[in-house]
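Subject — a protein and its fold
Fields — amino acid sequence, structure tokens
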Amino acid sequence: MIILFCVTWREGAPPLEGGLELVEEGDLAMVVGPEPTTTNRDDALVFGRTVERIAGEVDVLPFRYGTTAADTEEARGLLREHGRGWAARLQKVEGCAELALRASPPPAPQERAASGADHLNRLVSRSRRIDAAEGEVADLLTGRCRVVRRLTGHEELRLSCLVERPAFERVRSVLEEWAGRRDDLVVSVTGPWAPYSFVADGEEAGVVL
């Protein structure tokens, strides 16, 4: 059994070490390695650092931790099966890194709401602040990102931004300046990351803004 790290272009694939191997097929290559003997947090961190190191050198489509194949022949078969789609997605993320933004109101006081109406008003107020934050951030990011996706299914604003690497620090700075003005929100801006949120189609990964 082997673990799958990422897909990249065959031409220009980086040198590998630490037991990693390159499986090649057509224009693509897949970075694979021996499956860990354990599955704990440290293994996941090592996996993540490995993907980020490779993503710092070349364009990649990262796999989620725990994605495996029986052997290199099965991995090569995956490249044959999905090669066309993966090549198209690599072109979409070319030259970019992912920036992640999370914003939410600070935790509410622990006292119980005086009534059902009070509880509903709190929820509405929280939702309005998140919606307002989304509108402000969307204005700030217009023309600065290749793609912005809101990750759905969360009670906070979570955006994944595909940013061209030369512009990355400027975009981060713009968002951090905005965060510093929003004392009603807890905001984090992180990255650069490998483009995990842009491996799948938009319908699978979130809503394109």
